Amino acid sequence: MRSALNKGRVLFTVWFAHMSAYRAEIIIWMLAGSVPLIMMAVWIAKAQASGGATGGFTPSDFAAYFLAAWLTQQIIVAWVAWELDHHIRQGHLSPKLLRPLDPFWEFFMGHASERFVRLPFMLVILFAGLILVPGTRLTPDAGHVLAYAACASLAFTIRFLIAYSIGLLAFWFDQATALDEFYYVAAAFLTGTFAPLEFYPPFIQAAVEWTPFPYLVYYPVRVLTGAADTPEILRVLGVQLAWLLVMTLVRALLWKQGLKRYGAVGA
Amino acid sequence: MRLLRRLRRYLRVALIFAGASVSAQLEYRANFLVNLFGSLLLAGGSLLGLTVLYGDGQPLGGWSYRETVVVVGLFTFVQGYIGAFLYPNLNRMSEEVRQGTMDFTLLKPVDSQFYLSTRNVNLFRLTDVAIGAGLVVWAARGLEGVSLPGTLLGGVLVIAALWIVYSVWFMLSTTAFWFVKVGNVTELFNGLFRAGQFPVTALPGWVRYVFTFIVPVAFVTTVPAEAITGRARPGSVLAATVVALLLGLISRRFWHFAVRNYTSASS
Amino acid sequence: MIYVRELRKHYTVHEKEPGLVGSLRSFIRRRTKIVRAVDGVSFEIAPGEMLGFLGPNGAGKTTTLKMLSGLLHPTSGTVSVGGYTPKERRTPFLKHITLVMGQKQQLLWDLPALDSFLVNQAIYEIPNDEYKRTMAEFSEILELEGILKKQVRKLSLGERMKCELAAALLHRPRVLFLDEPTIGLDVNMQVRIREFIAEYNRRYEATVILTSHYMADVTALCQRIIVIDKGCIMFDGDLSALIESAAPGKVVRLELSAPVPDERLQEYGRLESRDGLKAEILVPRHNTSQLAARLLATLPVADVTIEDPPIEEVIGQLFTGVRAPAEAGAEQQVAAR
Fold first, then answer.
1. Pairing of strands C76-81, C249-256
2. Which residues pair with C2 in a beta bridge?
3. Separation between Cα atoms, residue C63 and residue C72, nearest integer Å
4. What is the ipTM of this complex?
5. pLDDT of amino acid A199
6. Which among A30, B226, C46, C205 is most buried, taking Cβ atoms within 10 Å?
7. C105 neighbourhood in chain A, CB within 8 Å
8. Nearest residue on chain A to B187, judged by CA atoms?
């Protein structure tokens, strides 16, 4: 146990230093993921055009929703599929495989520590957004903020496991990264970064409930904006834990099967 | 005569590049299906998004659903163009500067900008081009304002749009000479270009000006779509042409400036 | 320590005809063929032994090494390293071995090497005092002073390799798999790395398996040689036995003080080359010394050297069955020094 903690601590500090060397790139990636902000502009214009509110959302409701969505999207972003694909196909996985630690943890710590490099920039943009649209407020209640921290961390871990599983497909296909792009396209429309899910046709809302997508952005956003009550928060955390379990199993299975094939791609 | 000979020589070089990169890609035949699926997913998602946006039956910034589909079609078309022609060429520039292989490129006896811009074609991303064009045709057939002259004007404006996108993309890639580590600055454009899937009038006041004059996204999708749907304004047609020519010129100048200041990777 | 029986690794690869037409054809119908990278290899290695793997490119050396380290799962056959089955990649096994690849690196590119060492210390659970002791030892032998705190990307190739080696041996493994550890390094650095490996082997009685293109690496470190070609073992035994069996003669290099006709030189053995006053004669190994004495007594000799033929040549002969020109071999050997 103590040695596991020590491993985590060392990996975190070293990867934090590593990621800090890439802060300029991180800012660019952050700005590139600005779709929720564009959608915020479109929906605000729409609410204004229809006389102050559309579907029960006022301009400042939209601002709060999309700012929270932007924040969540920044927290859950994962590029490990691309990284793994590269490692597997170029053979860089080999040195990592020969260490007595599942390479998963190193990738995971790399991503987790990167969040903390992002943090100051995220807060700056968040506050700029809150000031730019008058009357916009996120929840002032400490309980909701804490619940959001839990929801967002779980969402990040689920997304990371999805990306990791997709990346592991590089053991079988040349095009694992293309599959991750599919994920991005689907996520852009189904996680809630395009519009609050209540604007979607009912059958899509019902179908999406059975996927992890709304639990990555939509529900965490409801927690941060204060729209979710305690029973809803508990339900969201429960479903997220279930998805976490499912993806952990999927990843473990792909990892076990994939290793048998490693090297056949010329590593 | 000399110009014609030169043109023919460059055309031949471009064709040889295209042939070589196409046969390299045919190696990965699963890519074709994967990309086709990705394109369909993207187009389907965009249409779903529009359905959500038009859920209350109100027009968006003065554009009807079908008219906006023309914009979405053009957006998909341009994305395919970027994926097929710009991305596989220009996004290698930073890597070339980093590794010092840019030296070889600059020593080739063809125009270096031409060489860097035409070496590769990503065949499979042409699926986006086809689907985008299909969407435009499908939407335009059901619209009243569509006429032959308007469509022809639209075609010219699309060419101007492609030229604008190329110039901006090329300039962003050229910054690699200075910001070696920053890598893909073009991701910035990618993020902002997402605004191009809506008519620029769907955005509120000052945001609209940003996407017209600071980031010329409006000229890429909205202005050609205006011409096709029969609502072209002489002012914006003229502006699009001027912007295209100007950006072309500036990007060329910028490239020469960058090459003069190139110090080569000595490490 | 290491036990390998009937080891095989077969791959399926796609074949493609050249040109656009060929590409289109293989786009529609794909032809495959099976490559036998390693095809029935058996050997045993004792603890503390240093073994050289020789063979041309694509002979199966690296594939074998990767199966021994557990990276590749064998198609068939048995491998046992220190009592473990490598492909299971159990933690005690991984703490027991290391793999160094001259062309792949594990150090974090943008950070000082010291940071990568700390990561390895944590991952391999090396106690602090042991870590300090090992670091002090390695710093001394490899002269790491002053380069540990520089960013890895700013190090020279040689400095980087020293750090790679230190990082790979930090947990004091008992089995070392070294795949081209000196590739691309200058001669001084090659010697330094070689000395370090020899020292490590002596101090910790580690088993070392080495592949290299530089024959000097192998001759300096290894007693025993396995020559592998097309996935099969061609020779397994002593380096000197290999030379004796493949090259039954020695080369006598003469510098004459006065002209002598070719025929008089041919009395002693096969005349390999002749250039004015210089000559090379291949003489039978068993009575080299008698012949040399007679030669000195009867001919006007200014200078004489007697050597084994260059090892590159001996190995080359094993693969091709044809003798390479003696001169070319000699030049190579000079270049390798």
1. unpaired
2. C45, C81
3. 8
4. 0.86
5. 94
6. B226
7. 95
8. A32
